[in-house]
Amino acid sequence: MFKKINDFLVGWLMTCISGIFLLVSFVLPHIGFSQGENLAWVSVAISGLPLFYMAISRLIINEGISKISSALLISIGMIASLMLREIFAAGEIAFIMAVGALLEEMTAQRAQKGLKNLIAMVPETGRIIRNSEAYIIPVAEIQVNDRLRVLPGETIPVDGIIMVGETAIDQSVMTGESLPVDKTVGDAVFSGTINQFGAIDIRATKVGQDSALQKLIQLVESTEQNQAPTQRIADKWASWLVPVSLCTAIATYFITGNIVRAVTVIVVFCPCALVLATPTAIMAAIGQATKHGVIIKSGNALEKMGQVNTIAFDKTGTLTYGKLEVSDVIRIHAPDAETLLRLAASAEIRSEHPLGKAIAAKAKENNLPLLDVSSFSMTAGKGVSADIQGRTYFYGNEKYIRESTSSIDEATRQYLDRLRTEGKASVIVADRENVLGIIALSDVLRKESGNMIADLTKMGTKTVLLTGDNRKAAEYFASQIGIMEICADLLPEEKVQHINQFMQSGKVCMIGDGVNDAPALKTADVGIAMGTMGSDIAVEAADIALVTDDIAKIPYLKWLANTTIKTIKCGIALSMGINLVAVILSVVGILTPVTGALVHNAGSCFVVLLATLLYDRKYPSGNL
Prior knowledge:
By secondary structure, this protein is an alpha+beta fold. Among the domains are: 291-320 and 446-559, HAD superfamily/HAD-like (Rossmann fold); 322-444, Calcium-transporting ATPase, cytoplasmic domain N, CATH 3.40.1110.10. 51% of the residues lie in helices and 19% in strands. It has 24 helices and 22 strands. It starts with a helix and ends in a 9-residue tail after the last helix. The relative contact order is 0.12. Residues 107-115 and 222-231 have low confidence and may be disordered.
């Protein structure tokens, strides 16, 4: 019953009612209605009872020094004020603390829907092969070593090894790779990934909770459970504030013999301004960040961002746009680059492969007329062929071209090696006699990535690349923007392992956009997701989201977090300084409980004003 009453009293509605009664109780005695001060009892009841309930609960439930909290000190101050019939002072203390608690709660709320979205990706059925017949069965019934068939467009139900067939697999859910990965007999495939082209038979190797997608879910669940709320600063200090205030009050009474002075000491010792320093500064910072398209879900995340010394980046969709574009058209035996692109686009426009779509889009962008195609065929995981103007052309990877036409010469191999070093995908164009040329495709690096990394380096922040892409692609992109430390070919659990390693030497921020980044985003001290490009799961798993995918906002966010921490420290120092002066004035008898309450109320106003100024503070670089 007590908890229900407490929950009813702590909301904004009852706190506003408490504030109204407190204001009226202050005004009425000054205009001739002396009994008006009794209205402050309403404020004491509404805002004071939850604090008293919290103090008693912590004394009973908590262990050791954690029994002593700011709520206990505030409750002592309230009771002492009431014993002296200083009702307004008691109500004022309770009201300010209630407002501070609500502000802190507002900054700490976080969405928790991401895990449900991740679970929704788990396949429900699979196609098992028994006695040469295919049957649809629930995934839960699939056993290790069962033979399964996966058709084009279907989600792979369990981890396995390809026994028959060749295809390309979209495994972005696991690795974040922008390109489908060609797979053939003997290659591993993962649950939750999508078979894009050819039908394949696989042998189940990991099922149920052992599968890759289930491990991904377990990672998110475990990191969710391990997230502990930051202990309030006031509670950290209450362990010595309570005994110091009581000892000071007792000493004041024995020295002066004046109980009013002793009670005033307890009143002014109440850490109202101290408690307000953190949530008000965080509220102002979150408000400013929102203006610039950065959504910060919790004050705890902003505080930790100010302490971050390492920022880890995913590549695809984060440092890059996550969109393939033709980067090079290399003529070898073709008449010219334009002819090569026309030949390729004329065939690839019929392909569903992302590489083919990008080539067709490039020809359209260049307004190139396409050629008539009399026949078209595709070999899953390898390439396509087409008859154009009486000749047969082949488009695909090295293996496909070697099987379909003459061997690849040394010059072509050198081009292919260079393109691989640059992290680019290659489509070789050939006829039956010669390689006509190579069309290279690449994810496009965000133009602001280089300046962003440089700005973070100037701030003394270490940057790291964590990606599921291959090592050469990762090294090429990292070299373009100035990231020196690279971790490539990573699965989600390996990203988490690296994050944990970095966390041993400081606070770590992870920035990503894909489902595969969710566990790392949750594990890191601070997770930042790309709001537009990013998956819903990544956005929900993160503490902070970039609404417009503008990665140039990262240095601004780091500056804002650093500035917020400084503002909080200034607010705490200011509140402690005012309290110290007020204690001295209370001991010598200059302040009474009412004037003491007003003085530390003024301190609270100064702290709030200092935090409010943070809302309009300008980013020094002026690039927003």
